[in-house]
Amino acid sequence: MSSEPEPGTLRPGGRTARVRAAVLAAAGDVLAEQGFAELDLADIARRAEVGKTTVYRRWSSPTGLVTDLLAEMAEESLPRTATGSLRGDLAANARLVQRTLTDPRQGPLFRAVIAAATCDERTAQALGQFYEVRVSEWAPAVQEAVERGELPAGTDAAEVVRAVSAPLYYRMLTTGAAPTEADADRAVAAAVAAAEAGVYVS
User: Residues 175, 127: one domain?
Assistant: First the structure.
């Protein structure tokens, strides 16, 4: 079995880091503007003002670019907001998701990646890893609520976090409209009520 890393998984520094930043920014622009089908390595190299050989050698394919882009987005996403209450923490998470999906660049970008993930295994794996990072970032909010006695022992923290964001993505994907702040608040209220009732006790 080869020990070579997957294309786009190395974490460079210095000038190489600047090349990576330029290429991933260009890839994000294309995803947001035109979708995954138009993600062409030669075009990305031109947009980023980077040699084609560099892009092909480092990322090798559009899915390599998407994998690295999602990894960067997970690394740069805002840290968890700790408010001291379960409802406050989950509301901060829901509003963050809502703002991301409403953003004129991030919203279309996520729609493009989600669409690509339905028919491309590597993109699906990269998207799954992105959300695994995000869920693990916010899971302590639920764990701390259990410790404070706000939720029953054995509550599955990851499932509660997913229950907050899932309705927001569902609304975007099924209606084509970005979720509103009211949608975010309803998702939090429903998740908290279910968690308090023991629905997510494993």
Answer: yes
Residue 139 near residue 195 (C-beta atoms within 8 A): no
Largest CA distance in the chain: 57
CATH number of residue 183's parent domain? 1.10.357.10
Residue 177 sits in the same domain as residue 121 = yes
Separation between Cα atoms, residue 99 and residue 85, nearest integer Å? 21
- The alpha helices in the chain, defined as continuous H runs, are 14-34, 41-48, 52-59, 62-76, 86-102, 106-117, 121-147, 157-175, 181-196
For residue 6, the model assigns a pLDDT of 46
Q: Are residues 58 and 107 in the same domain?
A: no
The tens digit of pLDDT for each residue in 109-164 reads 988 899 888 888 888 998 999 999 999 999 999 999 999 999 999 999 999 999 99
